[in-house]
Structure formats: C-alpha cells, structure tokens
Amino acid sequence: MFKMLRSRYLHILASVYIYNEHRGYTSIDRVLEAVRARCPDDLGFIAAVEKHRADERKHYLMFKRWFELNGQMPFQVDRTCGHIDRFIEIMFGRSIEALDTDAIIASDALFERLCRVIMLTEQRGMRQVDILLRSPLVRSDPVMMRIFRIIERDEPSHWQPYQGWLVRQGRRLARWPERLVDFWIHRELLLFKIPALYLNPGLQRRRDWADAGEFQGVVRQGVESVTIAA
Predict the structure, then answer these.
(1) Which pick of 20, 66, 82, 188 has the fewest CB atoms within 10 Å?
(2) How open is the CA angle 62-78-144, to the nearest 5 degrees?
(3) Residues 66 and 147 sit within 8 Å (Cβ to Cβ)
C-alpha cells in the first residue's frame, strides 16, 4: 500500500514539474525575442537566456524519460499548476499566450517587471529543489534524485542573468507585492493544488507528450536526458 501511495505522489510531482518545464522553455522564446530587441549588444545576457531555454528543454526531456522508464504518461495538469502561468496572469493581467511582446519591448517598466517575475520564479524553484532533495519520498527514487541534482546544478544560472541585468540598469530587484504573489502561488500549489490532484481518483493521464510535433534532432539536448537511468 505504501509503495502505491509513494508512486502516486512521485507521479503527481513529476507531472507538475514536466508541465512547468515545458511551459518554461516555450515561454522563454518570447523572452528571448524581447531581450534580443532591447539589448542587442548585451551578448552575455542573450547567451544566458539562450542557455536558460536550453536547460528548461533538457529538464523537460529528463522528466519525459523518467515517465518512459516507468511505462506511464504524466497526469493531465493545466496552467493552474504552473508557477510562471499564475505569476504572469497576476502581474500582467493576461495569460502567457496573450502577452504583447512588442509592448514589453517598447516599455522599460514592463520589461523590468518581466525580468523580476522570471528571477523570482527561478529563485523559488531553486529553493524548492533543495527541499525535495531532502525528501525521503524523492530520495527513494534514484533516477528522480539524479534529475533533481542536475536541476540543482543548473538553477542558479536561470535567475542570475535577470538579476544581473536589473542591477546593471539600476532597477529594483523585487517589489513587495511581487514577493507576496510569488509566496502565495507557491503555497497555493503545495497546500491545495497538489493535494487535490493526489486525492482525485478520476485524474486522467495525458494521451500525448506536450512536445508532440516539435522538431527534435537526432541527439536530444543534454546528455543527462539519456543517462539519468544509467
């Protein structure tokens, strides 16, 4: 019985993570467009955002491989379990898909806000990974532990570029309403949404992968996506 309950928890956790990793790398395409337009000469910043995008894709592939090894698809979760989805909706008043990239490029205030939202989201993610690495449930799965170790290694480079840009431009790192929203989204996910998913006996699994139809080269991004089960 305990093994079954533990397995369900890990599958719920991995389903939430794979959703967020997919939303992460697909959303960063918009961020890259804005960064390249606003900071064409800041090659270091552009390269760091490109790495951020590549890492999120790599993390998605690692969780995808975890599910493949377990012979099951992720559970069907939606944007209500997406940290960046909720943060963008609250701070910009619209979904990620509805963001006006041209308006963000043209506005100092909007671009600055976007950088802070990404920075806070990634810092929150780093702290959560530290907690999960100490979790007995996560530690019971060696493959998942390897995945989170890789994420732990990558995570600092995901928020530091945005913080660095804000510092170089003399902008505020975070406003208290933004920190409050970040805190609430995280608590809402942990205390309400994940338990609701866990206790939902009718929760369905996906029938296809989120990246179905996306171009994939012969070699997947990142050696880790292949070697996590070695």
Answers:
(1) 188
(2) 25
(3) yes
Calpha distance 164→121 (Å, rounded): 15
CB-CB contact of 81 with 21 (8 Å): no
Q: Residue 171 has which token pair?
A: 């902008």
| Residue-wise pLDDT tens digits, 35-71 | 999 999 999 999 999 999 999 999 999 999 999 999 9
Interval 66-105: pLDDT, tens: 999 999 999 999 999 999 999 999 999 988 888 899 999 9
